[in-house]
Amino acid sequence: MARLSKENKAARPARAPTRRVARATDRPAPRRRTNDAPYHHGDLHEALLKAAERVLERDGLAGLTLRAVAREAGVSHAAPTHHFGDLTGLLSELAAIGFRQFGQAMAAADASAATPPEKGVASAKAYVAYAQAHPGMYGLMFRSERLDHSRPSLHEASEASFAGLTRGVGASRHEQISKEQLTLDQAAAIASAWSLVHGFTMLMLDGRLKTILDRAPEGTSVETLLTAMLRLNARRQPPLG
Amino acid sequence: MARLSKENKAARPARAPTRRVARATDRPAPRRRTNDAPYHHGDLHEALLKAAERVLERDGLAGLTLRAVAREAGVSHAAPTHHFGDLTGLLSELAAIGFRQFGQAMAAADASAATPPEKGVASAKAYVAYAQAHPGMYGLMFRSERLDHSRPSLHEASEASFAGLTRGVGASRHEQISKEQLTLDQAAAIASAWSLVHGFTMLMLDGRLKTILDRAPEGTSVETLLTAMLRLNARRQPPLG
DNA sequence: ACTGATATCTTTACGATGTAAAGATCATAA
DNA sequence: TTATGATCTTTACATCGTAAAGATATCAGT
Q1: How far apart are CA B59 and CA B55, in angstroms?
Q2: Over 70: is that where the pLDDT of B195 sits?
Q3: Would you call A236 and B236 a contact, using CB atoms and an 8 Å cutoff?
Q4: Nearest to B173 by CA among B195, A193, B165
Q5: Cα–Cα distance between B68 and B62 in angstroms, integer?
Q6: Which residue on chain B is closest to A199 by alpha carbon?
Q7: Which nucleotide has the shortest C1'-to-CA distance from A70?
């Protein structure tokens, strides 16, 4: 947990030795002037989130620290505090962004297929594909122990992506699923679909599937295995739940 | 990540001010004298693992630090280094213990039922129950990013518990599953069973199932949901895979 | 336009962590 | 008995999150 080249001093421009001189010049001019947006220098709030996403993709979940994000954004290590409170705040906002991306990917997959059975398979594949393309983000969303799900933005984004799941399961069961109340069977179907894809994804990201793939027929990839698994489940009843 | 009462100074006897005086007296006498076992003062190796398990159960995965374990064992914070190399080493050895406990629980569940269908259900319930009873340990085994699966003890224990899974899946498919080579269908069945229970377990431990349970009929518990889910999957084909 | 209030950002500081390195101690073997 | 080497402790350092105080720039009110 400490092997990343001495605080990355090189990343910052090494402010001139005479501190506090002509600072307003090298700062990017304020961009927006609306009322609700943060004022002062541009909007650091957005800049920090963008920086955090870069750090997450580059260094993984372990490298996603408050100070690393501050360095990436070119501000002092304590700057994020004022915008997000603490690490939990920053991670939660970033995870909310992830859930929105994720929800869009799932919606696109759903729209790409015509009938319920294919919709389910397409959604499941898109689910795994998202995690494969953004392992750090998926880990943040589902593995991190420092998320505050009571934060409005995170709660809302997470609920929205969950709503997509229930809609998909409802479609493949050919029934309307109420947003408020579920039958035990519906709840079980949702839990089943979610558990299956989430479990597969986690095992994949943790490298646990290698144990299976190594023993499978020559050339079996994660995608092959997933397809076979979905086919196996589809043979019985609505796919993906 | 820093709110645990100032290094727990009270936990240690506060060595007398005159250092290095009469130390041999307050040390427990050496216990074992065999050749292979660590000599010197008793076996700290075992003591540290026991301490680590206590810390894990008491303070969770986040509280399981090298220094906390050393404090719990009553030794200096650097003592574990010599026995486990680094944090990864200690965590990996502890995870190996977890996998062995876990494997035993699964085996017991398998033995408790008579025919394949019930064996599968019993094993799945035991799987979730183990994680529920030892959330810290399950998190260490499947969520920690600091495990070295190439360590012999961990690799062996983890493979053994995986072998139990393949055996169970083989039994419910009424076929012998080779340890070396799997058909794609067999691999898919194993992945399906594992993904389902692992995914359910992770969602449960992360509190994500609440989203479902809140909308399920009054009084639906995790166990109820799990049972319904297994029943749903059993209705189709061999249960649990 | 000027000035005070306030939000934003930086500095400094502290306790925690993992890990390396050097010093102390003690059982074993020669 | 003594030297060797494994075991354990001390000390040190870079990193982390977070709190608090100082600096700075924007905005509001006159």
Answers
A1: 6
A2: yes
A3: yes
A4: B165
A5: 11
A6: B199
A7: C9
Q: Can you tell me the distance from the alpha carbon of A87 to that of A65, in angstroms, rounded to the nearest whole number?
A: 8
Name the closest nucleotide to B73, judged by C1' and CA: D8
Q: How far is CA A237 from the centre of its chain?
A: 30
Higher pLDDT pick, B56 / A38: B56
CA dist B198 and A200 (Å) reads: 8
CA dihedral for A153, A98, A104, A118, sign (positive or negative): negative
**Closest Cα partner for B51 from B83, B14, B5, B99?**
B83
Chain B interface, best mutation among A87, A154, A158, A184, by max B CB count within 10 A = A184
What distance in Å separates the CA atoms of residue B114 and residue B155, rounded to the nearest whole number? 30
Counting every residue written for chain A, the total comes to 241
B202, A203: Cβ pair inside 8 Å? no
The integer distance in angstroms from the CA atom of B49 to the C1' atom of D29 is: 67
* Residues in chain B, total: 241
DSSP B158: H
Rounded distance between C-alpha atoms, residue B166 and residue B106, angstroms: 12
Task: Note the pTM of the prediction, 2 decimals.
Answer: 0.86
- B66, B80 in Cβ contact below 8 A? yes
8-state DSSP, B178? -
Task: Report how far apart the first and last C-alpha atoms of chain A are (Å, whole number).
Answer: 40
Which tens digit of pLDDT belongs to each residue from A61-113?
999 999 999 999 999 999 999 999 999 999 999 999 999 999 999 999 999 99
Backbone angles phi, psi at A147, to 5 degrees: -115, 145
**Per-residue pLDDT tens for A108-135?**
999 999 999 899 999 999 999 999 999 9
- Distances, alpha carbon A197 to alpha carbons A125, A206, B151, B198, B234, in Å: 9, 14, 29, 10, 18
Q: Please enumerate in sequence order all residues whose Cβ is within 8 A of that of B81, keeping only pairs 6 or more positions apart, or say none.
A: B66
Helices (H), B134-219: 135-142, 152-172, 184-205, 210-213
